[in-house]
């Protein structure tokens, strides 16, 4: 029996040897170290107890590595998923409360079930509908939300939890004289150390360096001024041990309430994971199975719901670090989870020195890193439509519930895509002199007649949404060439034709025949020709009016027109010239 469909890690297991184990262990140790500040930070963003961010990087990360397809993808808590969890769950229960944790566990289970079903149903292509522009806009908006959620801890002022970005900005301006100087000093110092370390000491993990420096400054201020005098709050102690078992809420009312949110989180999570896996695969030369990644992410989230995790996905930073550190197989992610547990055994008692302003400073750094200024600039410069998608998604992320922001971004992308495809361009062309068989080049803005023959090239498919535009464009071609009812359509750019498109071409052929001319098709793809043939519309156009690549189409048609026999029924004309290959042999035979 072939077990690889059920145990996909058997495919890469033969690659494991002493050398790969050494590289994977080194990469895993590096990943385990960086996971400590990231896990705590992400859990804080999600409104969960700090240790849940670390638990989400253990069992789920192992399951995703073993049941996914990527050799380098590292799964666990991520910033985007964490902010979505907080924004969607905080209106339902107080963050950090037992009820809140229960809701998040249920959400995680539903996310995993949706992802697993999509993978089993081979629906991996669904993530293609969440465009890169939508992800960039959403992530930039999420970064602003992260910074806004931490402003109260960064400046030491009272701002109602869950306030909108605009409310936070307003409160910061109104309370500018009430900032706690000690809290703000620790937060700013944490940011500065992170930036300096990343810039001048790139080999050191800048988040860990910032966490240690900020914590030491907080301890020094407390010692100098007295405990409790600075207003610097600790995040508390971390529980040590393997991820404890947990139980989601299976009540029907809770599940109905969370299903719409779970769908949005599932799609965002899958988009993150598959995009990251594919980007690294381009460097490593690996082929990614999108459906298998769906299954791996689904099983990871299902396991997280029962092992004190919360919704997870592929992490860009940790995956890139894993690849750069020399990981050879998915065992590197397994080692990372194991080293994380060992690190916690020794570092957990020190968590009492980790303070709220330190975490706020770290999250400000994380939020800044989420804004992809390079791609945002490229999008704005390259396409107005993509820039509109970016702006709509970004603003929706700041003003709407986050799941609707994703839906809206996808919807706008699809509407603009349909608008583009529904208006294929009709380009006037002319044969290049001295070349036979003919090659066609653009001839200007308006069609021109060559010996009574108008020649245009259609760049786009003809389907029900584009039929009206194509029909109007073909009729408008007559305006530039009055008295020239013969039209040669260069059809190499037509990828497909549906029934409505086939009927439109047949009607156009009949219209031109009634005017004493004809419609001629050159170099049409076989799939499009098959639709014309299968729909019964090819007869109306005429088999002898279909020309293949290599035929002297201009010579044949100008000779016909000169003899007054371009009526679209060349097979019945008594004095037509010798037939071309397309006339002697029906297209597609």
Task: Explain what this protein looks like in three dimensions.
The chain is mainly alpha-helical and 589 residues long. It is 59% helix and 6% strand. The radius of gyration is 32 Å and the shape is elongated.
Strands, helices and their partners?
Layout lengths: L8 H4 L5 H29 L3 H6 L3 H9 L7 E2 L2 H11 L8 H23 L11 H24 L9 H10 L6 H20 L5 H20 L26 H33 L5 H17 L6 E2 L1 H9 L6 H17 L8 H15 L2 H10 L1 H16 L2 H20 L3 E7 L8 E3 L6 E2 L2 E7 L7 H14 L5 E5 L8 H16 L3 E5 L3 H9 L3 H4 L4 E2 L5 H10 L18 H4 L5
Parallel strand pairs: 6-7, 7-8, 8-9
Antiparallel strand pairs: 1-2, 3-4, 3-6, 5-6
Helix pairs in contact: 2-5, 2-13, 2-14, 4-12, 4-14, 5-7, 5-11, 6-11, 6-12, 7-8, 7-15, 7-17, 9-10, 9-15, 10-15, 11-12, 11-13, 11-18, 16-17, 17-18, 19-20
